[in-house]
Amino acid sequence: MIKPQISFEKAYEIIDEISKSTLEIYAEKCDRENKFPKENFDVIKSYQLQALLIPKEYGGWGLNFFQYQKCLARLAQSCASTASAFNMHNIVIGSVADYKLDKLPVEVRERIERQIKHLFKLVVEDKKIFAAATTEPGIGARFSQVKTYFQKTDDGYILHGKKSFVTMASYADYYLVLANKKPVNNEPVNVHSLSYFLVPKNAIGVKINETWDVLGMRGTGSHEVIFDQVKLPFEAVFMGREGFALSKVMREPHWITGGYLGVYLGIMEAIFNFTKNYICTRSDYESKTGLAFKPLIQARIGDMYMLMNNARLNVYEAAEKVMRDPADITTHQAVYAAKYVLGETMPCLAHMALRTCGGSSISKSFALERYLRDASCGGLMPAVSDMCQTFLGQSVLAITDINIW
C-alpha cells in the first residue's frame, strides 16, 4: 500500500526523482531499440503511481486533473514514451474516478460501485495496468465508423475486430475496447450503441501483432491487437452499461483528448530546456562572449519561450476549467484549443531549437533529435488537429449537434 504521506507534493517529488534517476536513463534505449520501457513502469509501480488518480479512500493518491497534468508533464520531460503510455492507463482510471453516480437509480448505482471498487482493487493491490483499444486501421479515432463489434449471447458477449495503435499492447494486463453492436439484417450502424468492454490480455482469441516501428514515441509499444470472437462475461461491459461510450466522450473530452495535454507540454518544456542549457554551456558569462550574447540567439530564445509559455497557459486554463465544470462548452473549447496549440506548436518549437543550437545539435547523441521526432506526432493523436479545429468552429458558430467523432 501507499505510504502514509499521500499528497500531490509528495507524488510530484517522487515523479521528479524517478524521472531523473530512471526515465532519463532508459529514454534513449527504448527509442533506439524500439522497446517498451518496462524498467520505467517497474519503478512507477514500486511507488504506487499507477494509482495516482484513484481516490484516497480506495488506496490511491487522489490527484485531480490539474495536478495530474503537472505530474505527466514532468514525466514527459524525461521520457515522452513512458508518459504517453502512463497516460493511456490513466485515461481509463481517470474516467472511472470522476464518474458521477448520484443521479443513477439505486440498483444501478450499487452495481456500478461494486465494479468500480473491483477495478480500483486491481490497480492498487494487484498493480494491474490498463490500455485503451479505441482506434482502428483506416478510421483512426472516428468513433462513428468503428467496425469492431459485440454481440450479446445467453451467457455474456462475443467481441470481434481489430484495433490499431494500442499503446502498451504487450505490457498491459487489460484492454478497454471500444465496439459497436453487431447490426442485424443489414440494419444501419447505430453510434448510440457504442460500448466499452474490459478484456484481459490473456483472453482466448486475443492476438498481438507487433507492428510498431515508427517515427516518434517509439517506446510506447503501440501494436495492433486482434480480437477474434473473444468470449466475455456480462460483467465485462464497462461500467455496467451498453451504449454510453460516445455520449461520455462528447460530454467529457478531457480524458480521451485532454489526457494528452501534459505529455505534449512536457515535450515542449524538454525542448526549451535543452536549448537553453545548450546555449548556456557554449557561452562565457564572465567575458560576455559566446552564443548567449548574440542578439539573434537571444531573440530566438525569446520567441521559443513565448511559444512554450503560451502552450503551458492553454493547458493550465483547460485543466482549471475541467476542475470547475467538465461538462461546460467553454471547458470543451479550452481542451480542444489546448490540444490543437500543442499539436501544431511542438514541431515548430523543435525546429526553432535546431536552428538556434546549430548544426552540431542534429547529432543522435543529443536528446533534441528524439524530441523533434516525438514532437512531430502530437497532432495525430485524438482528437487530431483538424477535429479540434472543426469542434471549435462549430461551437463558436452555435451549432448544437456537434459530433466530430
List keywords for this structure.
7-stranded mixed beta sheet; Butyryl-Coa Dehydrogenase, subunit A, domain 1; two-stranded antiparallel sheet; single chain; Butyryl-CoA Dehydrogenase, subunit A, domain 2; Butyryl-CoA Dehydrogenase, subunit A, domain 3; alpha+beta
Task: Walk me through what this model shows.
The protein is α+β, with helices and mostly antiparallel strands and about 400 residues long. It has 3 domains: about 10-130, Acyl-CoA dehydrogenase/oxidase, N-terminal domain (Butyryl-Coa Dehydrogenase, subunit A, domain 1), CATH 1.10.540.10; about 130-245, Butyryl-CoA Dehydrogenase, subunit A, domain 2 (Beta Barrel); about 250-395, Butyryl-CoA Dehydrogenase, subunit A, domain 3. The chain is about 50% helix and about 15% strand. The chain contains 12 helices and 9 strands. Helix 3 crosses helix 8 and helix 8 packs parallel to helix 10. The radius of gyration is 22 Å and the shape is globular. The model has no long low-confidence stretch (mean pLDDT about 90).
